[in-house]
Design goal:
Blueprint lengths: L4 H24 L28 H20 L1 H7 L1
Length: about 80
């Protein structure tokens, strides 16, 4: 009896895609906790950013994750592909 891989593979890809989308959203958006109470006016100094304008650190990180997701199955199954040809 064959395993139901025709359902499992798309489900795994959808889960990986959702995880990647959630991680990219979490990296880009800071969460403000505890500010839903009474609003107060305070003067805050400008934040010193650790990254420069035009920095591509986050973009490089996400692109490396995408490349690993694409290349990992290729490297895991290259022997079976060689046997087929």
């Amino acid at each position: 009896m064959k395993k139901p891989l025709h359902i499992l593979r798309p489900a795994v890809l959808i889960v990986i895609g959702l995880m990647l989308a959630l991680v990219s959203a979490a990296v880009g958006q800071p969460i403000a906790l505890g500010q839903a109470g009474t609003p107060t006016v305070t003067v805050t100094p400008p934040a010193v950013s650790s990254s420069e304008i035009g920095s591509t650190d986050g973009l490089v990180f996400l692109s490396v994750i995408i490349v690993v997701i694409i290349l990992a199955p290729m490297f895991l199954h290259w022997k079976t592909w060689l046997r087929k040809s």
